[in-house]
Structures are given as C-alpha cells and as structure tokens.
Amino acid sequence: MLKIVTLFLAFMAVLAMFGRLRLPGTKRGKDLPKPRLCKTCGRYNLRGGPCPHCTEGQG
User: Fold this and answer.
1) How far apart are CA 24 and CA 36, in angstroms?
2) Phi, psi (5° rounding) for residue 44?
3) Distances (CA, A) of 22 to 18, 27, 41, 47
4) Who contacts 43 (Cβ-Cβ below 8 Å, separation ≥6)?
5) What pTM value is reported for the model?
6) 38 CB-near residues (< 8 Å, 6+ apart)
7) pLDDT of 1-17, one tens digit each?
C-alpha cells in the first residue's frame, strides 16, 4: 500500500513539473484579445453590440 501511494505521489510530482514547463515559441494567454468594456457604465461586454446593462429597462 505504501509503495502505491509513493508511486502515485511521484507520478503527480512529474506531472506538475511538466505542467509548469514552458516551451519556447508558445504564447500562453497572449493570443486572447482584451475584453471589451462598455464606455458608459464600464462593465464587461462579452457579446459585443449594445450593452445589456445600460439598455436594460429602456424601451
């Protein structure tokens, strides 16, 4: 039982090291555009078009 737990923890440590590995030439998170903000209220407008928060309740 102790051997299985030790092997599992070692395997998880190896996976964590590979997860932190950053390969050259890859851009993580830099490919995403900045989120759009509403000019009136300053809230995030993820869908684009008119702001649903500003136009709520207006006709």
Assistant:
1) 30
2) -70, 135
3) 8, 9, 38, 32
4) 37, 51, 53
5) 0.39
6) 44, 45, 51, 53, 54
7) 999 999 999 999 999 88
